[in-house]
């Protein structure tokens, strides 16, 4: 068996922590703005990561940071195929999106993607799933782009499908996403005033939630703010 840095970190942390929290995480959207920041954070925290990709260039980047990889296209992938890919995993994260590339892609990726995640999790007995969704007030007061209402509609439908499941789900609804790394200062709550949030802060908050398995069946809104991620997450540990 070949050992890379990620494998060694995982084994050492698992030994120190009794393997109570460390998991194998399947990341859908691993090469996106949030996902490519989330994967190394999870590995740094001692988890194993299995990352989904579409191009060979993406594969090499993911493997270089210690991810196990699997090639798939959300537009073509079935729930059965996702079930096969996620066997042996403990957690599934969905952070993919169509990014305004057309109504059919929005329907399939943002709408049906989370549905496939739920079905795969249920078939494999995976209890924990995490969905990066959208702030309900997104775009309000601005001139919406074509297809925006459709995007918000399928996002809400996907959220509803996830919450109707019997899984231990968490839905994270970030504000307007900024192409910036984390500064570790956020606001997190059940209901927030709309704002923007760095993609790096989304990734690090998601990593903290994954490291807090007692937080489940929660829909949380996220913007940049003044609290550290640990302080912002802490009240939800008490409410769990």
Radius of gyration: 17 Å
- Model regions low in confidence, pLDDT < 50 over at least 5 residues: 14-20
The topology string of helices and strands comes to HEHEHEHEHEHEEEEHEEH
Overall pLDDT level: 90
List the topology elements.
Blueprint: H1 5-17, E1 24-28, H2 35-44, E2 48-53, H3 56-64, E3 68-71, H4 79-85, E4 91-94, H5 103-124, E5 128-132, H6 148-163, E6 168-174, E7 176-178, E8 185-189, E9 196-198, H7 199-210, E10 218-224, E11 227-228, H8 229-238
Parallel strand pairs: 1-2, 1-4, 2-3, 4-5, 5-6, 6-10, 7-9
Antiparallel strand pairs: 8-10, 8-11
Helix pairs in contact: 2-7, 4-5, 5-6
Walk me through the structure.
This protein has helices at 5-17, 35-44, 56-64, 79-85, 103-124, 148-163, 199-210, 229-238, and strands at residues 24-28, 48-53, 68-71, 91-94, 128-132, 168-174, 176-178, 185-189, 196-198, 218-224, 227-228. It is an alpha/beta fold. The protein has one domain: Rossmann fold, CATH 3.40.50. A nine-stranded mixed sheet has the order 3-2-1-4-5-6-10-8-11, sandwiched between helices. Strand 1 (24-28), helix 2 (35-44) and strand 2 form a beta-alpha-beta unit. Helix 2 crosses helix 7 and helix 5 runs parallel beside helix 6. The radius of gyration is 17 Å and the shape is globular.
């Amino acid at each position: 068996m070949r050992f890379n840095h990620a494998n060694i970190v995982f084994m050492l942390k698992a030994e120190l922590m009794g393997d109570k929290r460390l998991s194998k995480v399947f990341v859908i959207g691993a090469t996106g703005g949030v996902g490519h920041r989330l994967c190394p954070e999870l590995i740094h925290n001692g988890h194993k990561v299995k990352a989904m990709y579409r191009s060979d260039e993406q594969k090499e980047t993911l493997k270089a940071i210690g991810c196990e990889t699997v090639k798939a296209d959300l537009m073509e992938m079935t729930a059965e195929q996702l079930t096969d890919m996620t066997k042996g995993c403990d957690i599934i994260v969905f952070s993919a999106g169509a990014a305004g590339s057309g109504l059919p892609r929005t329907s399939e990726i943002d709408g049906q993607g989370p549905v496939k995640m739920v079905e795969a999790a249920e078939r494999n007995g995976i209890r924990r799933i995490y969905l990066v969704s959208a702030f309900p007030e997104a775009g309000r007061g601005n001139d919406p782009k074509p297809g925006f209402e459709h995007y918000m509609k399928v996002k809400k439908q996907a959220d509803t499908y996830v919450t109707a499941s019997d899984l231990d789900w968490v839905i994270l609804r970030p504000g307007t996403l900024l192409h910036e790394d984390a500064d570790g200062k956020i606001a997190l709550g059940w209901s927030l005033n709309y704002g923007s949030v760095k993609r790096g802060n989304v990734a690090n908050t998601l990593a903290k939630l994954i490291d807090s398995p007692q937080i489940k069946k929660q829909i949380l809104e996220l913007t940049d703010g003044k609290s550290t991620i640990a302080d912002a997450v802490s009240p939800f540990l008490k409410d769990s």
